Amino acid sequence: MPSKTQKSTTKGAIRRKVAARGNKNKPVAHSARRSVPARAAPARIRTPTGAAAAEAALPIPTVYRPSRFLKAVPSILITAFTTLLLIVFLIPFLYMIMTSLKTQEQFAFANAPIWPVMPPTWVYEGGNTGTYTLMVAKALAEPVEETIHLGDYVGKTLDVITVPIDGVEKNLAMLKGYQKGAVFIDPENIAAGPIAWNGGSYKGLQRPWVFTPAWDNFIRMWNDINYPQVLWNTFYYTLTTTIGVLISCVLVAYGFSRFRFPFRDLLFMILISVMFLPGTVTIIPQFLFFSQIGWVGTWLPLIVPAFFANPYDTFLLRQFFMTLPRELDESAMIDGATPLRVLWSVIIPQSYPVIVAVTVFHIVWSWNDYFGPLIYLTTKMDMQPVSVALARFNGMFGQHPELIQAGALVSLVPPLILFIAAQRFFVQGIVITGVEK
User: Fold this and answer.
1) How far apart are CA 341 and CA 347, in angstroms?
2) Is the alpha carbon torsion for 329, 335, 336, 341 positive or negative?
3) pLDDT by residue (tens digit) across 289-326?
4) Which one of 166, 177, 333, 368 is CB 3.0 to 4.6 Å from 182, fit for a cystine?
5) Average model confidence (pLDDT) for the chain?
6) In the 3-class helix/strand/coil scheme, how is the chain assigned residue by residue?
């Protein structure tokens, strides 16, 4: 028989088995402590081989970012190139200004700058009337004795020249000049007496030029050419023809852009083709016609044709009118506006840029027109505009380029002021004419 100890052990084992079976059916209570997750098995690292290994061994490329200076280099180059072109373009204009301010004497100065200058002079008023003997190189390189009596130069006007002496340049007054040397005196130190300079010909020395513009050239030109009358003739010719061009070209362009009529496109093509017709072809027929009706010697051959439009300005205006929406015209017509009222109240107020552009174009053209007034106003000198008058003035004063350049400069000022004042509208009208809105 089993002992008591064995029985108790057997009963304890039976109880533990029964309790274990019951715990399987009960819910498991989670502990407040966080369970520690089991460690995952380490992943196997694949080592690249072959081409993959060679590609992985390449260095990582770095992104290049240019500096601000390099980014600004293109704009700097463009600005510099544009400035260079502007300077080259303005060189003739600057030469005209400088020439108009010179005198006949200033053209003869050797080694003189381009701007109007005069060599400075100094009047010897005495203070030292002594006699000096110097060694001066005259025609030969070997210096010879030269006696200078300063009393003989009292009251005389002496030229001032920049002379290099002992490495220092001084402005000295020349007493005598030779082929190989010269004799000077220092205006700031008369007591030192004359100075012998044997450095070569004094003509190769520089002078302390003084800016001396000759404004009298404009006054002389104004009187000799009768410029007020010439200027009035030019203004009259320009104003009347500009009015005629604006009235006629606006009406013709309005008709081609807003109205539908038979052969409209064909007529517009014929009008445009007239631009390719050389003007010299029609000179003789026009002159004969105007001569037969007695218009030669009057303003009529120059002014009347402007009231019959021209293809260039008509084309610009028509192209601009085409960009304006037709709904504006229809809205005005619904309110009872006539076609002319639509043109005056709707089209023209929106077309100021192109109208200003056409105005500037024609003013510059008529201001510079030479051939027409030359043909029809040859016998009427009191009616000639500035273009013909300047050509006549050029023939009369061909030996005075300063007067010719002064007249050309004065004639250039009015169109230049007009262009600067109307530049914004002028450029806007040209751009919008070729761009569809």
Assistant:
1) 9
2) negative
3) 999 999 998 999 999 999 998 998 999 999 899 888 88
4) 177
5) 81
6) CCCHHHHHHHHHHHHHHHHHHHHHHCCCCCCCCCCCCCCCCCCCCCCCCCHHHHHHCCCCCCCCCCCHHHHHHHHHHHHHHHHHHHHHHHHHHHHHHHHHCCCHHHHCCCCCCCCCEECCEEECCCCCCCEEEEEECCCCCCCEEEEEEHHHHCCCEEEEEEEEECCEEEEEEEEEECCCCEEEECCCCHHHCEEEECCCCHHHCCCCCEECCCCHHHHHHHHHCCHHHHHHHHHHHHHHHHHHHHHHHHHHHHHHHHCCCCCHHHHHHHHHHHHHCCHHHCHHHHHHHHHHCCCCCCCHHHHHHHHHCCHHHHHHHHHHHHHCCHHHHHHHHHCCCCHHHHHHHHHHHHCHHHHHHHHHHHHHHHHHCCHHHHHHCCCCHHHCCHHHHHHHHHHHCCCCHHHHHHHHHHHHHHHHHHHHHCHHHHHHHHHHHCCCC
> Count H helices, E strands: the chain?
17, 9
36: pLDDT strictly greater than 70: no
| 13-30 per-position pLDDT tens digit | 545 554 555 544 444 444
**For the whole model, what pTM was predicted?**
0.67
Listed range (43-57, 60-74, 205-219, 334-348) with the worst mean pLDDT: 43-57
Other beta carbons within 10 angstroms of residue 302's beta carbon come to 22
Question: What pLDDT was estimated at residue 7?
Answer: 44
Q: Report pLDDT digits (tens) over 331-351.
A: 888 888 888 999 998 999 988
Name which of 262, 128, 113, 237 is nearest 185 in CA terms: 128
Distances in Å between the Cα of 357 and the Cα atoms of 78, 110, 153, 162, 412 are 28, 47, 66, 54, 19
Query: Going from the N-terminus, what domains does the chain have, and what CATH number goes with each?
Result: 82-118 (no CATH), 120-208 (no CATH), 218-433 (1.10.3720.10)
311 neighbors 274 (Cβ within 8 angstroms): yes
